[in-house]
Amino acid sequence: MNRVSTTLCAMTFQGNASNGLQQDAFFFVDDYYQEALGITPVRQCSDNAFCVAVSDGISQSDFSQVASLKAMKTVKQLWQTYLDNPNQSAVMDILKIYEKVATLPKRYYGASATLALVYRTFVKDNHTHSTVVIKHIGDSRVYHFSANTKTWRCITRDHNLLNQLVDEQAAMENRQADFGEYNQDGMASPMYALTDCLIADSDLDSNPMPAFENQTLAVSSGDCLVVCTDGVHDLVPCDKWQSIDKHTNLQAWLKQLSKQIYASEGRAYDNATAILVRFDEH
Question: Taking residues 205-216, what's their average pLDDT?
Answer without folding.
Answer: 90
